[in-house]
Specification:
The complex is a heterodimer of chains A (521) and B (304).
Chain A: H1 2-33, E1 42-47, H2 62-69, E2 76-78, E3 84-86, E4 89-96, E5 99-104, H3 118-129, H4 138-141, E6 144-151, E7 154-159, H5 166-169, H6 178-191, E8 200-206, E9 210-215, E10 228-233, H7 237-246, E11 251-252, H8 260-265, E12 269-284, H9 294-303, H10 306-313, E13 318-320, H11 343-352, E14 359-366, H12 370-386, E15 388-395, H13 397-405, E16 414-419, H14 428-435, H15 444-447, H16 453-461, H17 466-483, E17 486-499, E18 502-503, E19 518-519
Parallel strand pairs in A: 1-10, 1-11, 14-15, 14-16
Antiparallel strand pairs in A: 2-3, 4-5, 5-7, 6-7, 8-9, 9-10, 11-17, 12-16, 12-17, 13-17, 18-19
Helix pairs in contact in A: 9-11, 14-16, 16-17
Chain B: H1 2-30, H2 33-37, H3 43-53, H4 59-71, H5 85-120, H6 125-139, H7 142-156, H8 169-198, H9 201-208, H10 213-243, H11 245-250, H12 256-266, H13 269-297, H14 299-303
Helix pairs in contact in B: 1-13, 5-6, 5-8, 5-10, 5-13, 6-8, 7-8, 8-10, 9-10, 10-13, 12-13
The chains are: A alpha+beta (521), B mainly alpha (304).
């Protein structure tokens, strides 16, 4: 017995030694093969999903926009401070209330060598405006009725009525080469032969795997500082973080707040954040009890401790908002004060509304980022605390999307979600989708029923007179505060994780504009 | 024998038709893709698109048209990729098949010898140890194993790439992750199958003839024990083809599972249909092959 035991021990030790040898062997074999060290003169960026195709007009997704901006120029650009800058247009002015004239940059070339002219601008806009193209960007520019070529380097965009958002809309509107597109056809352009005038040109695309770009030496700004740009598709956040730490990837976005301390402390990485327009809100269904009563909606607004949510769940990276209008957006009125956290007042208001014992409600939440779930749960707790006993239902973005687009907006009582303004820095970009009741809008058509609000939103969006717009929006924000058609929450930050070899800073428009990125020596 | 095969082939066609009908029905119940394609359009624009896509026609007419085209290999254009759906699926198949094969080879290579060993050395320390490992292997969810392996081999030791699918080194971790999840099942099956066979009279006879113990085990016992093992392996192969989606997501592998899951989220009908039909066809065919193997392995089936 004893002998057998000794033998077994010996066998085990031998086994261990074998294991160690095997590991060493693996180390030698793999160590040489794996290119964990970062490639020279290359930026690798990870995105959680791929673009459906390479055609910049056939999608409207954030990840697609981030890919496109590095390959295509638009008429205008925004600097890191978010002020307009010339891009393909060097000057712009309004001729009358509905006519905008753009002077185009001379000597610009597309990646394939074609010269850039007014015809390309006209072609790009008309293509998206044509219903046959089925472009998801159509809604953004549908105010444009005519694109008129004045001469080879001047175009006019003519809108059906005064359209104050026009400049915002042409900051991301990729211009594509008419001649090249017609030659290669839509299919090839969308898969193997995309071309723009942007700082990086197309090299190779493997769907759902990577997009390889190379700097365009003849770009009108001058060649980009870094030669290669690789965009890898990595759906899982923890995998992105692992790649970032090992140097397989240089930049990742959409960090969850709880990852930030880890990446700040790590030797190879840092975090860059910037306030963005993405606004969290909870839309009340004003058509039905209990939220048809103003007191109940106000009670809900008093019930939630926004600051605690931002501090505890967002790592402090959030801006509490009095209504849904962001300070970075045109039209914000700084004199409107938000609801303070006051559970006692909330209970009183509920009593006034005829609910001395509280009431049961159901709230639906669209959880497109994992941390939205915690926020929704915190809100539900705080509601329940004052007597709005909340039954919370969580939805993946796909099914949530479907539920709120079809039929009668069936979510009972309320819907928690976020709105990113499509990175349009104007109050209209959130007021219209959230509160205008016209069919085809966002949740406004289902939930908002505020007397007179539609007319105010209409008035502010159909004039170019800035003072008039500002005063209308001031009225709107006061009305919103009082009527409380939503639970007003906060706006979040863009959160980037970056490898220390790369120098880059997050922007307020969620763009990742890698012309501004530099590799540290 | 031929009659058996023909009967099974016929059943196969019926199963495929059934799958196509169920997929089609479920998809059409799940929502309106037009709202996903044109999120900011007016109702009139959407009606036009619904018309072009044929989505306003009665359900059975739509299904008939779909079936007619599908039989010719045409599943239509993807709503979002704007390219034919079937090639999209085929583009991904090699990756998924490769991943599945790697994982299966790994799992089989580990599990069957271990299964035989634990059956032969029943109740020994090795048997107990392996049982413990099986318990561990089965209770670890795939995404957890994947991330742990990544943290160890990529982040802590820098031995292997954390994700991707371009070098052979990048295939190691996903194959281990998926293999670890499969191995316990194969191990349990091979252990119990071997145990059952080892107690039979013919094995005793073989031993009595004075054959070497390992000849008895490998040549005589294993062939009979192989029937349930082959069945389970065949079934699992099919499961993994579509079910490797978690591994694909964790390691950023462009596989079929990920394509289909995303298409479901977007309500991209053509891609879902092409994907589901391709996978079901492969699964059904694998099962058919398993049946054939069965005939070869088990003379009783052949005779009856």
């Amino acid at each position: 017995m004893k002998e057998r035991l000794t033998m077994r021990t010996a066998w085990t030790i031998r086994g261990c030694r074998k294991g160690v040898l095997l590991l060493l062997l693996m180390h030698v074999l793999l160590g040489g093969l794996v290119a964990v060290a970062a490639e020279p003169d290359t930026i690798v960026m990870a995105l959680n999903r791929d673009q459906d195709n390479m055609d910049p007009h056939l999608h409207f997704q954030r990840t697609g926009i981030i890919m496109n901006i590095n390959m295509y120029d638009s008429l205008l650009h925004k600097n890191p401070q978010l002020a307009y800058e010339p891009s393909l247009a060097t000057a712009w002015k309004t001729i009358d209330d509905t006519t905008w004239e753009f002077t185009l940059r001379q000597g610009v070339k597309f990646h394939n060598g074609d010269p850039f002219t007014a015809e390309d601008v006209q072609f790009s806009f008309e293509r998206v405006l044509d219903p046959a193209t089925k472009s998801p960007q159509y809604g953004n520019i549908r105010a444009i009725k005519t694109v008129k070529i004045v001469d080879t380097h001047t175009v006019q965009l003519i809108t059906d009525k005064p359209f104050p958002l026009l400049l915002e809309r042409v900051v991301f509107f990729p211009i594509i080469p008419k001649k090249h597109f017609t030659q290669v056809g839509a299919q090839a352009f969308a898969e193997s032969a995309p071309a723009g005038t942007g700082p990086y040109k197309f090299v190779e695309w493997k769907r759902d795997q990577y997009l390889k770009l190379e700097r365009f030496a003849e770009h009108w700004r001058g060649a980009a500082p870094v030669k290669h740009l690789v965009i890898r598709v990595i759906p899982e956040t923890s995998t992105q973080v692992a790649e970032l730490k090992t140097g397989g990837v240089d930049i990742i976005r959409n960090l969850a707040p709880d990852l930030i301390p880890d990446l700040k402390a790590h030797a190879n990485t840092y975090v860059s954040t910037a306030p963005i327009l993405r606004t969290h809100y909870l839309a009340f269904d004003m058509r039905e009890p209990p939220f048809d009563k103003k007191e109940v909606r106000q009670a809900a607004n008093y019930a939630v401790d926004r600051k605690a949510i931002v501090d505890k769940l967002m790592g402090g990276l959030g801006l509490v908002l009095p209504t849904v209008v962001h300070p970075m957006a045109f039209g914000h009125d700084a004199t409107v004060e938000g609801y303070q956290y006051d559970p006692k007042k909330a209970r009183e208001l509920l009593k006034q509304a005829g609910f001395p014992n509280g009431t049961d409600i159901t709230i639906h939440a669209g959880v497109s980022e994992a941390f939205f779930r915690q926020i929704a749960e915190a809100i539900a707790e705080m509601f329940t605390e004052v007597g709005l006993r909340t039954n919370l239902k969580l939805w993946d973005p796909g099914p949530a999307w479907d539920k709120f687009f079809r039929g009668e907006g069936k979510a009972t009582h309320g819907y928690y979600g976020t709105w990113g303004y499509y990175s349009t820095f104007d109050a209209d970009a959130i007021l219209h989708p959230l509160y205008h009741t016209e069919p085809g809008g966002w949740v406004g058509k289902w939930y908002a029923r505020v007397q007179g609000l539609d007319a105010l939103i209409e008035a502010a969006r159909s004039t170019l007179d800035k003072d008039k717009r500002l005063s209308t929006y001031a009225t709107v924000q006061r009305l919103l505060k009082d009527e409380a058609p939503s639970l007003f929450l906060f706006a979040q930050h863009d959160m980037l994780g970056i490898n220390k070899r790369l120098d880059y800073a997050a922007r307020g428009d969620e763009w990742i504009w890698l012309y501004d990125a530099k590799l540290r020596k | 024998m031929i009659a058996v095969i023909v009967r099974r082939l016929l059943r196969l066609v019926v199963v495929c038709l059934g799958i196509s009908l169920i997929t089609f029905l479920l998809l059409h119940l799940s929502g309106d893709p037009v709202a996903m394609i044109l999120p900011e359009a007016t109702e009139a624009d959407r009606a036009v698109l619904r018309e072009t896509l044929g989505l306003n026609r009665p359900f059975l007419a739509q299904y008939g048209a779909f079936l007619g085209r599908a039989l010719q290999g045409d599943f239509g254009q993807s709503f979002f990729h704007r390219t034919p759906a079937l090639p999209l699926v085929f583009e991904r198949m090699p990756t998924t098949i490769l991943l599945t094969v790697f994982a299966m080879v790994l799992a089989i290579g580990l599990a069957i010898p271990a299964g035989i060993l634990t059956a032969v050395k029943r109740y020994s320390i090795i048997d107990h140890l392996v049982t413990l490992l099986v318990l561990l292997g089965q209770s670890m969810p795939v995404f957890w194993t994947g991330i742990m392996l990544m943290l160890l081999f990529a982040v802590a030791w820098n031995l292997l790439p954390a994700s991707g699918w371009d070098t052979w080194a990048s295939t190691v971790l996903p194959a281990i992750t998926l293999g670890t999840f499969q191995a316990p099942l194969f191990l349990r099956i091979s252990r119990s199958a071997m145990l059952e066979v080892l107690g039979l009279d013919y094995v005793r006879t073989a031993r009595a003839k004075g054959l070497h113990e390992w000849v008895v085990i490998i040549k005589h016992a294993l062939k009979n024990a192989a029937i349930p093992i082959v069945t389970v392996i065949g079934l699992q192969f099919g499961v993994l083809l579509g079910g490797a989606v978690v591994t694909e997501t964790v390691f950023a592998i462009p596989g079929t599972g990920r394509l289909i899951i995303r298409a479901i989220g977007q309500l991209d009908f053509p891609v879902v249909q092409a994907g589901v039909m391709t996978l079901s066809l492969i699964i059904v065919l694998t099962n058919f092959l398993v049946d054939l193997l069965y005939l070869w392995l088990n003379p009783q089936v052949r005779i009856s």
